[in-house]
Design brief:
Elements lengths: L6 E5 L3 H13 L3 E5 L2 H11 L3 E5 L7 H10 L8 E5 L4 H10 L3 E4 L4 H14 L12 E4 L4 E4 L4 E4 L2 E3 L3 H11 L6 E2 H8 L8 H15 L6 E4 L3 E4 L9
Parallel strand pairs: 1-2, 1-3, 3-4, 4-5
Antiparallel strand pairs: 6-7, 7-8, 8-9, 10-12, 11-12
Helix pairs in contact: 1-5, 2-3, 3-4, 6-7, 6-8
The chain binds calcium ion.
Calcium ion (CA) binds next to loops.
Length: 241
Amino acid sequence: MTTAKAQLLIVEDEPEIAELIEFHAERAGMRARTIHSGRLALEVLRREKPDLVVLDLMLPDLDGLEVCRRMKQNEDTRSIPIVMVTAKGEEADVVAGIELGAEDYVTKPFSPRVLMARLRNVLRRHGPIEETPTRAERLVLLGGRLVIDIDRHEVTVESKKTDLTLTEFGILHYLASRPGFVRTRDQIIAAVHGKSTVLSSRTVDVHVTALRRKLDTLSECVETVRGVGYRFSEGTDESQN
Ligand code: CA
């Protein structure tokens, strides 16, 4: 999809971590550059518009969540995808970042291989144009074992039709539109809102449980991301846990 080398901007104040990411990114065929401060990063982002940002949340001047918020408020930087680097146990930050529009995250200490897999995933799904959820009439997933017919509201599991409620369908469609991307419960609620009954965080879990049961042998494709939410997994993503 990308012909030129992908431009990666690393926003990280710890030199060893920045170097590690740079090293692996360059080996993976990207062009990487590091900025050590949040404020400066915003300037550089506006000017250079890289393809992807790796954003540490713990920065000396302007914290990563604020950088993320400002990026999303600015027309020039809004569509640049962000992968956050968070401290262990800071699930509230992960939730906040994803709700601000970050695409994905890794937790320190992270494996460079996992980070590169996440970055490639984001680049693959993020064309130069702003995030557009799949508008296809049918989503064919897991090598055809799961088919979601959006117009007909039909889901086929291993060639057998399965009856989902509107809410279950909404949740599955939303997650499956962007495999590998974590969605918080609030995002799920917002996405299926209006299409079904009123949802709360807790009822999302109940619907997901019911959905998994109906997905039968494919139930594991709706993956729980502890403390954060859910994602659709194609089983190829390297897990961090
Ligand atoms: Ca830091």
